[in-house]
């Protein structure tokens, strides 16, 4: 029997509730499919920062590295710790340190969920570059606070990183519909995005079975709203993928449904799975956070670990629960709680 070791970082606010809840269907699906999951919880959070001055210990990455995967709730408590501190002290070091260069977010309507669009059929997978590009962090500010102030933010696109994320997109497209949308803005950004297009063309020659369509970011943003059913796998740079996956979250019913995987495809380090939403201080401690995004992220984790049947089964169980929205949490108009929703998913298994 396979046993997986899982590092849990519940984090702050509702992160704590949704991670605890997601373990219930995880155990049920593991029992049913004949594997087990051993988990270790780490209290890395803003609360820890306030106590010790650090979001995680110096050897945090080392402590995580022996696990098969990381499940993270949400990090941030802006009333007491600036977001730049919490993000740069925990989430970003893990994504970068473990070279989780793929950020993968599925956007589709689960049964029973209508979303804000009239179109009800779409199944989009956004593949976002997760290590460089517009979020490289390169740049600076000089003459701060004066009339001569200058701020520079440099987007960095390396051949190695562009090629590996595009290749991941081609592979995903090959395993799904054979259609890939490559997101660009090469009409305006004549260096980085023309380079992105060139590498897309080079790889297209290696994947004759994949049909590539190039979309400018503004046009595809509109297309997410007007014709989402025409899209399948969408590969994008860090900034463009960030924006598109928030539109994806909106059309699939909101943050309570948006799951994400930070993947190290080479397997040299653990990958990390997390809901897209944050710590939601406005509803923290009330037991009403929607756990679906986190449970869906657990399904992505099982897929990554090679438990395909269990991953599909968990998603199917989620769908049987969402089919009756009255049983869901208040953000979906239901009267359920975080724990009752998780328990129903476990029961549906
Ligand atoms: P948020 O996602 O925490 O909340 C935005 C709104 O959506 C709130 O009204 C909240 O109640 C609602 N919401 C979010 N998740 C929900 C769920 N599962 N069920 C029901 N309602 C839900 O974003 P916000 O308020 O901008 O950020 C709060 C904190 O979270 C900040 O410190 C921010 O930096 C952090 N954050 C952390 C992320 C992470 O750990 N990956 C991602 C986004 C924000
Ligand atoms: Mg975002």
Automatic annotation (TrEMBL):
Q: Which SUPFAM superfamilies match?
A: Isocitrate/Isopropylmalate dehydrogenase-like
Q: Which InterPro entries match?
A: ICDH/IPMDH (IPR050501), IsoCit/isopropylmalate_DH_CS (IPR019818), IsoPropMal-DH-like_dom (IPR024084), TTC_DH (IPR011829)
Report the residue ranges that make up the Isopropylmalate dehydrogenase-like domain in this protein. Answer: 5-345
Catalytic reaction equation(s): (R)-malate + NAD(+) = pyruvate + CO2 + NADH
Q: Does the keyword Protein transport apply?
A: no
Task: Give cofactor(s), names only.
Answer: Mg(2+); Mn(2+)
> What keywords are annotated for this sequence in UniProt?
Manganese, Metal-binding, NAD, Oxidoreductase
> What molecular functions are annotated in GO for this chain?
D-malate dehydrogenase (decarboxylating) (NAD+) activity; magnesium ion binding; NAD binding
- What PANTHER family does the record point to? D-MALATE DEHYDROGENASE [DECARBOXYLATING]
The family line of this record is:
Belongs to the isocitrate and isopropylmalate dehydrogenases family.
Q: What is this protein called?
A: D-malate dehydrogenase (decarboxylating)
Can you name the source organism?
Cryobacterium suzukii
């Amino acid at each position: 029997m396979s046993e997986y070791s899982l590092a849990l970082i519940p984090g702050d606010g509702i992160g704590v509730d949704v991670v605890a809840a997601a373990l219930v269907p995880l155990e049920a699906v593991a029992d049913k499919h004949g594997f087990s999951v051993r988990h270790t919880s780490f209290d890395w959070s803003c609360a820890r920062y306030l106590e010790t001055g650090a979001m995680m210990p110096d050897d945090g990455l080392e402590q995580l590295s022996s696990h098969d995967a990381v499940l993270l709730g949400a990090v941030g408590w802006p009333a007491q710790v600036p977001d730049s501190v919490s993000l740069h002290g925990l989430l970003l070091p893990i994504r970068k340190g473990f070279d989780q260069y793929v950020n993968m977010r599925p956007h589709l309507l689960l049964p029973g969920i209508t979303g804000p669009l009239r179109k009800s059929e779409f199944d989009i997978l956004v593949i976002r570059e997760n290590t460089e590009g517009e979020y490289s962090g390169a740049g600076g500010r000089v003459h701060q606070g004066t009339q001569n102030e200058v701020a520079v933010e440099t987007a960095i696109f390396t051949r190695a990183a562009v090629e590996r994320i595009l290749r991941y997109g081609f592979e995903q497209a090959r395993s799904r519909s054979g259609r890939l949308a490559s997101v660009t803005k090469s009409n305006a950004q004549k260096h980085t995005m023309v380079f992105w297009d060139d590498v897309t063309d080079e790889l297209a020659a290696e994947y004759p079975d994949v049909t590539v369509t190039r979309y400018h970011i503004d046009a595809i943003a509109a297309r997410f709203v007007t014709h989402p059913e025409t899209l399948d796998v969408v590969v994008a740079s860090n900034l463009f993928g960030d924006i598109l996956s928030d539109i994806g979250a909106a059309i699939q019913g909101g943050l309570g449904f948006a799951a994400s995987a930070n993947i190290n495809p080479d397997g040299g380090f653990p990958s990390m799975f997390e809901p897209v939403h944050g710590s939601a201080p406005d509803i923290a401690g009330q037991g009403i956070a929607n756990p679906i995004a986190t449970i869906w992220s657990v399904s992505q984790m099982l897929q990554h670990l090679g438990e395909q049947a269990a991953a599909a089964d968990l998603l199917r169980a989620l769908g049987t629960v969402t089919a009756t929205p009255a049983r869901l949490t208040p953000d979906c108009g239901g009267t359920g709680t975080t724990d009752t929703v998780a328990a129903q998913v476990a029961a549906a298994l």
